[in-house]
Amino acid sequence: MYHKWEADPVVLAYAPRFVPISTIPFPAITVCPLSKIRVEEFNLSNAFELVDRGIKLDEESERKIRSLAHVCPFIDEWTKFDRQPLEDDLVKILHRMSLGLGLTVPMVTWRTKLVSTSDWITETLVDDGICYTFNALPASQLYRAGEISSDFLNLSRGSASNWTREIGYRGRVGSDTFPKLALRSGLKSGFAMLVALRKIDQEFVCRGPFTGFKVSVHPPDETPFTGDQFFRLDTEHALSISVQPEVTYTSKALKEMSPKRRNCFFGEERYLRYYTVYSQNNCINECMSNRTYAKCGCVKFSMPRAATTKICDASRIPCYRGAILEVFYRAFKASLENRPLPCSCLQACILLRYNAEVHRFPFHVEHFRAVAGPFMDLFKGRDISVIQVAFKYRHYLPVWRRELLGFTDVLAKFGGLFALLMGASMMSLAEICYYAFVRPLRRERSSVKWIPVRPWME
Hints:
Blueprint: H1 2-7, E1 10-14, E2 19-20, E3 28-33, H2 44-52, H3 59-68, H4 75-78, H5 90-97, H6 101-104, E4 107-110, E5 113-115, H7 117-120, E6 121-126, E7 129-134, H8 139-142, H9 150-155, E8 163-164, E9 168-169, E10 191-198, E11 213-218, E12 231-233, E13 237-250, H10 259-262, E14 264-265, H11 280-296, H12 317-336, E15 347-348, E16 351-362, H13 365-372, E17 382-391, E18 395-396, E19 399-403, H14 407-422, H15 426-438
Parallel strand pairs: 13-17, 13-19, 14-15
Antiparallel strand pairs: 1-19, 2-18, 3-7, 3-11, 4-5, 4-10, 6-7, 8-9, 10-17, 11-12, 13-16
């Protein structure tokens, strides 16, 4: 019993009752178009033809291609980059060439009501470049303003958050609460987004034979990993996502236990240099940034970094890709050998995830144009897709992380074992204490009276 308690001191148990979904925030939705450039800014297909014919590009075009190489994996197949000074304005170049919020997300609805795109959608800097996010914490609350580069703070703006993982929603919760929350399940209390790509911006040099978007569903206080955690949405298709939250709470009694034994961190126990909110994903993101800088002397443009940290040039792409793979390999090896993970990125004790059930189906835009009238004239020359996100059920069942055995449980189990193996009881314990401590201190007096013997009786 002792070895069991020593090896697994924490147990996960389901809560006794279901909880309404209005107690947790609606998930954040990040959308990344696979096309990265407006043709007015740069024509990548023409540049490819020039390079293929051996014609040298001008300096401005060369800088743009070197910047696009970080988000366009197929560029590496047709051009090689020599070593040049590290780029400081790479993010600005990508932002200037990006498709833009107005062109990419022309329409958003929340609870079936049309809302302002500029007020509800923010630009986000992720692995895929400039993407667009709904319901995420503003950068000023997600990042540490005194540590993080201004590249992250200048892009993302939004409403002040009224929610934290540790406390939940503070004060009165109304329709203007941020992050947004759903009052019930279904699309009538969900989110819908119309996303579009201009036909003239479609090209296949950057991403190969793929079109459309990447869609990531994540907690509002985490940065998404759009490089490997996403759903694919093709043009002229619809994506319907039914979300079921996975919430894990931790008993306050476990705060006295070390994080290694309980296998999680409370928010105030693990300090992150660039993030104000601790989560395993944020910790991994910062860990990869630190390991990449130690190996390459620079970091990928989307990694959290200080203002003085250099961004890797296109010639250093293989270096930071190798550093990222090395971090994941070390984590995999550590899990097999039952050793601590790199950078000690344990789970957060208050865990929030969104399990998504995805349905894809065609969106017949051209047939709809014939009957929609002037409304569809606004989207002439664009390939349109639709994203719908809603909770699947009105309630969820939380999981509690608590002690396997408390002091009272241990005392009761040891008492049961003694009673079983020794026939002992509380009366036996009292008798042992009496004979060990009380009886030696007492002077027993005999009850027999001795009669003295007189001499004449002899």
